## 1
Amino acid sequence: MEDKKEDLIEHEEELLIEDDTHAHKKERKNKHKEQIEQLEAEIKNYKDKLLRNAAELENFKKRMNQERINDRKYASKNLIADILNPLEQLNMAVNMKTDNDVLKNYLIGFKMINDQFYSIFEQDGLKEIDALNKPFDPKLHHAIEKISNPDQPNGINLEVVLKGYTYKEQILRPAMVKVNEWSEENGKDK
């Protein structure tokens, strides 16, 4: 009987050991499963980061390419802006009225040179802003004075004091204008 008891005890111990190893195996399996899920989540995170970085790099390349294109396109913008004032002074000088025939001949020659400069700049993309008798546009015009003329529509540029220019869709200099602004209540205590 004692042998049977010992056999039963051994059998129970074996079962306990077997249950323990089975539980231990299950616990290890769960740990491995958790590690696998964690690693898969990390892989997914790294893939996402990789795709984002690739997209950012592609956008950066496009931006840099566009900047290079714009740099080439507007390369002479600063030069034209610097030359514009002396050229306008020359334009005013060659268009002055005189009765002296010798001076008229000189002015005709200088006017031809002046016109060539403007022609070259226009070919490169310089355009005068058409402002006279046009509605005031703060993007294109800079109001330096208000005029009250009820015979003219409100908000119209009545005089261009200094011409404005665009260069290839960019404002080089806004036109300096005098704007018509009046109302029925002007001069009345209302």
## 2
Amino acid sequence: MRNLSTWLLIIFMAMFWLFRLIVAFTAEMGMYFGGIVPLNLHVEIVLLFVTLISFLFIVKRKIIGALIYLISYGMYFGVDLYNNVMTMLQSEGGIGIETATNMMIGLIGMVIPIAILFDLLLDKNRKAHPVDKKTDWFYKNKQFDRELDERADKNNYRTL
């Protein structure tokens, strides 16, 4: 995770997860956080744990974590976003504030996983150059190796 974009996406992911955690907690207590209600409380709680697991994979730069994150959020927020867009297109009098809020949250819930997946797919340093600059100077530079004679210590101190 060397890029600023990767750090920002991880921070946005964590902030959205905390937001959904607060929404689920307040809905369980019977109050609603700014009028925002979870679509399905039980699925929301399971989704919070799935997101936590995928968060660990994404931090480790594994594509499977981004795919799990995109599929789970796509199934949860994508269907609701599609239904809200169809409601907006079919209604003649406009949409209510609750529908607009749900659409905005659904849109954020879909944009973040797509951006994280593209960030992982387009990261050229993830697999192409799996090097560590702190140790490569030691392991990759043959010009600094000493010429050894028969009296020299033959132990191999380099581990790679």
## 3
Amino acid sequence: MEIERKYLIDLESVPFDYKSYPAKVIEQGYLSTDPVVRVRKSNDKYILTYKGKGEIEREEYNLPLTKEAYEHLVKKSDGRIIKKIRYNIPYKEKYLIELDVFLGDLEPLVVAEVEFESRQEADTFVPPDWFGEDVSTDNRYKNSYLSQK
């Protein structure tokens, strides 16, 4: 089960050098958006993901792929291939902010995601001051939607 909240970010409001944190270069394509079936390259790891319906809380299953399988499947993607750099930023000793800086025609979109262990924890989370609008329930900011628009 994936439980996460998502926020829009203005990089000018980030009060530290986010580029100093560990980063992954991510490329992903969607074989289906209903249900969501995604293939992803994250640095040198390749993953097939199934995501169930939902907004803040939904099922998620990940399976490893070989590079060859990824390269074969990504060509079958429906819509654009999403490219982004993900910075992993620790927050309050318990959380990890995944700061996604989108590349290409999705620039200048920047989104922060935070995952939680329970729905109650997600519902009571107080984001840092530099976070913008909470778009957790706005489907326009799901990557599967962005791949189609």
